[in-house]
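Ticket #4471: structure output looks truncated?

Reporter: J.K.
Steps to reproduce: submitted the chain below (143 residues) through the standard prediction queue, then opened the result file.
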Amino acid sequence: MRFAGILAAMSAAFLAFAAPAIAADATGVWATKEGKSHVKIGPCGDRLCGEIIWLKEPTGEDGKPKTDRNNIDESLRSRPIVGLQMLAGFEPDGENEWDDGTIYNPEDGKTYSSKMELVDANTLQVKGCVLMFCQTQSWTRVE
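Returned output as attached by the reporter:
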């Protein structure tokens, strides 16, 4: 009887201190590759979207805030990078994964199909693809 009580207490202690499973939550603020920018990911309807909220180098050589100068749509080239929607339309696709989204790259002015995977609580892998050619970046949680 005493052994059973000790075993039950040990089991309860183990469960209390066991590492929790990853909360499937990509919302928050993420530092992009090389810390060039911070992207705030949050809900937009029943999907996830993300906007650039901070730039490591927020101003251009002229001292003015950076704009979307590489956008293929000339009418959008004067909009500021900070505040720009970078991620759009991500829907859950299994545990800790989101698919069917798009990612906009202000460095080349193009939008790519994209998916995201929460690797752990502080690492988000973001993949952008053109046809079957993909590039993956690991982003780090800031908040």
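Triage note (M.O.): checked the attachment and the full token line is present. Confidence is low (pLDDT under 50) at residues 1-23.
Status: closed, working as intended.
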